[in-house]
Amino acid sequence: MAKGNPDKDFYFTIEKEAMAEFKDRGSRFIAFAFPIAAADDFKKRLKELKEVHPKAAHHCFAYRIGTDGNKFRSSDDGEPSGSAGRPILGQIDSKGLTNISVIVVRYFGGTLLGVPGLINAYKTATSFALQLSPAVKKPVLAFFRLQFDYTGMNDVMRILKKHNCQVAQQQIQLFCELEVGIPKTRLALCLLQLQQLRGVEIVAL
Fold it and tell me: Which residues contact 43 (CB under 8 A, 6 or more apart)?
């Protein structure tokens, strides 16, 4: 779980991208905070920002994914060790957020800021961006594969909608297959109701 969030049934993230800027002695630190579901989402956005800001001196970042607290990464991208990525991740964790990344683009202003100055700059830019994108509470999901005949589609979808489930993937033909995320708070009742439908096969993912 992301630090600061002891609730195993829910997690906190942001829903839309936010951008903020911090300046110190001529250097510009532009922070982009955005939601991600996987490392590939982060890589795609980093590639885009490097194309938009090719003359920036550094593209430092941190991200945290998932609800077990184990999937995270940070990078100083050439800045002194521990002066950029860690302060960015520290701001993410201080708000108890996950499924989120922050990339801070730095344009060098000609004056060295020193490690304390860099830590403050990356921390402040990240904090500003996170303030512009309020945290939202989302349910932790358990994922299952459902297989059933097309004639059972309406009954299956009615139950999934009732329990606020998310459909991650679907193949709709005469024989249907859905990959769904069921909120853990509704898991037992939702599975019971699905099991009561004729011909529905349920496999945990």
Answer: none
